[in-house]
């Protein structure tokens, strides 16, 4: 069931997607910046949402997830980032490593430094693959 008291929102004044000329049909888009903004919004909302949940809440707790999907690959990458957020939270709490594939560098460096890390992205997609199939694959068909 949807429970509105457990929500988190994010707002950021960034010119990643805007329409400077009303006479032009399409907006101006900075794709790299737009993806970074998407990750920052996801991470901010997820972190605050988790604070409102039970201590053992993680990305595998809900039966389903709903993402804004400008393109399907971003949804898969974003769901995988939730696994990073969960691992970082556990590591900060008690030093527990959730996967031997995640290095302490990834768990401790600023999140903004992880946004373009292709090695991390690959590991996270592998860690989240089964759960992604279960919770999101059919939504992106």
Explained architecture:
- This protein is mainly alpha-helical.
- The chain is 48% helix and 3% strand.
- The mean pLDDT is 89.
- Helix 2 crosses helix 4 (118-135).
Radius of gyration: 16 Å
State the separation between the terminal residues, measured CA to CA. 24 Å
Low-confidence stretches at least 5 residues in length (pLDDT < 50)? none
Oligomeric state of shown chains: single chain
Broad structural category: mainly alpha
Q: In total, how many beta strands?
A: 2
Shape: globular
Q: How are the strands of the biggest sheet laid out side by side? A: 1-2
Mean pLDDT comes to 89
SSE sequence, one letter per element: EEHHHH
Note the beta-strand portion: under 5%
Helix content: 40-55%
* Number of H/I helices: 4
How many strands, which pairing sense, and closed or not: the largest β-sheet? Answer: 2 strands, antiparallel
Brief synopsis:
With 141 residues, the protein is mainly α. Helices cover 48% and strands 3% of the residues.
Keywords for this structure?
141 residues, mainly alpha, 48% helix, 3% strand
Present the secondary structure layout:
Layout: E1 17-18, E2 28-29, H1 31-51, H2 72-94, H3 104-108, H4 118-135
Helix pairs in contact: 1-2, 2-4
């Amino acid at each position: 069931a949807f429970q509105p008291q457990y929500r988190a929102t994010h707002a950021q004044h960034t010119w990643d997607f805007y329409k400077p000329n009303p006479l032009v049909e399409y907006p101006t888009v900075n794709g790299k910046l737009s993806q970074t903004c998407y990750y920052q919004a996801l991470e901010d909302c997820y972190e605050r949402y988790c604070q409102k949940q039970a201590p053992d809440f993680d990305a595998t707790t809900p039966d389903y997830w709903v993402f804004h999907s400008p393109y399907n690959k971003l949804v898969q990458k974003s769901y995988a980032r939730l696994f990073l957020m969960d691992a970082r939270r556990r590591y900060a709490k008690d030093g527990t490593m959730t996967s031997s594939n995640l290095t302490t560098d990834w768990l401790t460096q600023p999140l903004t430094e992880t946004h373009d890390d292709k090695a991390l992205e690959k590991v996270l997609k592998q860690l989240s693959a089964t759960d992604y199939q279960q919770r999101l694959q059919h939504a992106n068909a």
